[in-house]
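Quick one, tokens below. Sequence please?
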């Protein structure tokens, strides 16, 4: 098993640099340092030698989910990604579908930055109009509402949180949807209360507002 060799020399990414990368959507710039890359490479090869995929490891050991827990939207169409009449197709809606955990192999970030992943049993759909497998503006609004409720309403400053979902070609685990959340100078107590929970998932009222169904 091989992975692309992307290594950042010198100092770690600062919060200012991280803000630039995320806000400009130049996600391909993120990298690990030499030590982090070696650990990640070795970990993936150790799994491969045991016949275990990275997806299998994440599901079983980190999320404690089963492969058959993972599902795709049923009724969604390119013209209607989400509908409150189809709650099974609403991402970040069902508590049982979502879990927040540390990123086991974060990028080379300064010590003040915590790298989390929010995982979803329900596939977060790609934007059919994106050539690189990005997500739609509506999906981004939905994710931002979830992050508002989960982090910002719990005391995290809007200036101290960033998020992104890697485009398809950048994802190391493609079959289980997840978004990356980066927190700067986060309160440890707040962080510990959120880890391994679903956070504050969206309600039908949230969706009705986002979808202009009122």
């Amino acid at each position: 098993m091989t992975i692309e060799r992307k290594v950042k020399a010198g100092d770690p990414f600062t919060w200012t640099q991280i803000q630039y990368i995320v806000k400009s959507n130049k996600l391909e710039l993120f990298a690990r340092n030499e030590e982090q890359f070696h650990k990640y490479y070795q970990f993936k090869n150790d799994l491969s030698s045991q016949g275990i995929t990275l997806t299998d490891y994440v599901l079983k050991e980190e999320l404690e989910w089963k492969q058959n827990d993972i599902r795709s939207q049923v009724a969604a169409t390119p013209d209607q990604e989400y509908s409150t009449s189809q709650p099974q197709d609403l991402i970040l809606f069902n508590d049982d579908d979502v879990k927040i955990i540390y990123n086991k192999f974060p990028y080379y970030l300064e010590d003040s930055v915590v790298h989390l992943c929010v995982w979803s049993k329900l596939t977060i759909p790609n934007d059919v109009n994106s050539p690189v497998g990005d997500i739609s503006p509506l999906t981004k609004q939905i994710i931002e509402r979830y992050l508002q409720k989960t982090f910002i309403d719990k005391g995290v400053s809007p200036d101290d949180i960033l998020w992104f979902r890697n485009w398809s070609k950048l994802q190391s685990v493609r079959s289980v949807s997840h978004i990356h959340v980066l927190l700067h100078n986060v309160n440890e107590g707040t962080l510990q209360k959120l880890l391994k929970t679903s956070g504050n998932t969206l309600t039908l009222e949230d969706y009705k507002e986002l979808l202009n169904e009122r």
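The helical segments are 15-23, 34-49, 54-63, 137-150, 188-194, 204-210. The CA atoms of residues 33 and 72 lie 35 Å apart.
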